[in-house]
Amino acid sequence: MRKNIFILLGVGALVIGHILMTLIFLSPDNLIKNKMGKTAFNYMKPFFYQNWHLFSPNPGISSTKLWVRCEDQKGKWKDWQDPFSSIQEDFHKNRFSGKGKLLRVYQELSRGVVKKYDEIKEKCMKEKKDQNFCLNPSNFMKNLTDSNAYQLADDFAMMICSKRKDGVGYQVKVITFFPKKYSQRNDESKQWSRVEDITFPKQYWGLIADKGI
Description:
4 strands; elongated; four-stranded antiparallel sheet; alpha+beta; 2 domains
């Protein structure tokens, strides 16, 4: 009997200790965390640490979107638009509509463009070591147009703008939204942690990019 009591007391002490370490680890800065924060971190890190993307099979680290705008015959550019917004709205209204797979294909298209752009930019930085040059997509459009991802995005944008009776040109932009970190969850001054965009050169029917590294 006495042995069982000692076991229960031991287990209870471990549970209470774990809860205390977890609370200290997750708490905002305070006097207790300033003194015991390192101990709590060393306790949590090996076995219990997790990032805040745990509950998603494809972690929502960022959201990448493809935006398009069109130019009319008067040389006026229309507002940027997300051509997939209606599909996304339908998917959110009805998760069983089948639009999820279609939306995923479009998202992979946007990510493919960003991936190719980053690869070319990284290569450019190693060879030229000129940040201003390498951050301008106009300087390596030929290399981009050789990739399937960008070609599909370019063709899609041209298809959208060519449907307009007064359309003569188009432009593609890829925007990546990074969600707020957990530590920023109470900051209502901004919706995202940061936003990165890549705006590609304006294109016109039949124009072939001829710039490369």
